[in-house]
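Dig into my protein:

:::
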Amino acid sequence: FILIAATTRDPSEISPAIRSRCAEVYFEPLDQNDIREIVIHSATRIKANIGPEIPDLISDYTIEGRKAAGILADVYGLAIYKNKVGEKSPDQVKIGKDDLLEVFQVSRLSPFLIVKASEKLEIGKIFGLGVSGFVGSVLEIEAVCFPASEKGKGRLRFNDTAGSMAKDSVFNAASVVRLVTDMDMADYDVHVNVIGGGKIDGPSAGVAITLAIISCLTGRAIRQNIAVTGEVSIQGKVKAVGGIIEKIYGARQAGILKVFVPQENEKDVPANLSDIQVIPVQTVREIAENVFESKEL
């Protein structure tokens, strides 16, 4: 007797007694292209006439195929009701953007994908990468710096909700900043923020925090189509972190073109990635040479 089961629950939530008797197989989540195809095929199956923007909009709100089909069914029903099906046959009813937005509002749905990459350059802002459950996501990390009112008595602030390991990363970053730039953070008031106030459980945002601080101190912009992950040591080395596959998935979803990962995680990078470049690095200096507008620190 063999039982095959599928779940989207985090493995840590499953009873250890069950897990010890299972062979676990992990699958990559659906990406936006997959969701678009599911919406198009579902529309064909139920003979719904949808506008060209509908698959793109639905793909912004879910990564689950069943939910995408359910949203389409809901908006189809709404469109039929609004157009009075007695006057038109269902296949003559066209689903528009306004119909879909009404369903999102009534269902209290929020976009799954909020952060998107761009070609612009920004000072003191960079994309880090995180994992929630089985899905990777992009973290917006920003920093602002001002000369301290009294030299040597600058203050360093960080989100109280971010987690203790993330705060440790900020203090590590202070040492690395001085090592790389020869600038003393004690002469500046520095505020580091994770947009959205998200909790960071591990040290993997260390490199991103370091680069955001270097950017604001030196006034050098960072490309907003790259993302970084990795723990930072006080010697400026980029150390291994977990969830590389999930993080790369999250970066791809957001339209990131280039991701920097620790050299020690090179073996964890999926093969045959055509839409994103993954670059293994060993030090913060290596990343800095690629992410800043000017290459030399």
Notes: The mean pLDDT is 87. The chain has two domains: 1-113, 121-291. Residues 1-113 form a domain with the Helicase, Ruva Protein; domain 3 fold (CATH 1.10.8.60).
